[in-house]
Write a structure and sequence with these properties.
binds zinc ion, 5 helices, rod-shaped, mainly alpha, about 0% strand
Length: about 90
């Protein structure tokens, strides 16, 4: 049986696909409001949404590789090498 609150904010079953669409970035604005309302009232879906979102962020970072390898200019590298060599001797 649908309670009044569910009629307004949608059920968890309705919300699952909305969360996925939101993460994928193709949730229509009208549905987005409904999702926001649901997350406001439903901690389970809110937690699910946060988990998916952070997972998505991590995956994107891994796929895109946002941290480029550190590259030093030639002279700086020489300086460092000299420093290291001096340390050794
Ligand atoms: Zn829910």
């Amino acid at each position: 049986m649908m309670t009044l609150i569910h009629r307004i904010i949608g059920t968890c079953k309705d919300t699952g696909p909305l969360i996925s669409a939101k993460i994928d970035g193709n949730l229509p604005a009208g549905r987005s409001v409904r999702l926001k309302f649901h997350l406001l009232f439903c901690t389970a879906c809110d937690r699910y949404y946060r988990q998916l979102k952070s997972l998505d962020t991590v995956l994107k970072k891994l796929l895109i590789g946002t941290t480029p390898p550190v590259s030093l200019p030639e002279e700086k590298r020489k300086e460092l090498e000299d420093l290291l060599n001096r340390e050794k001797s």
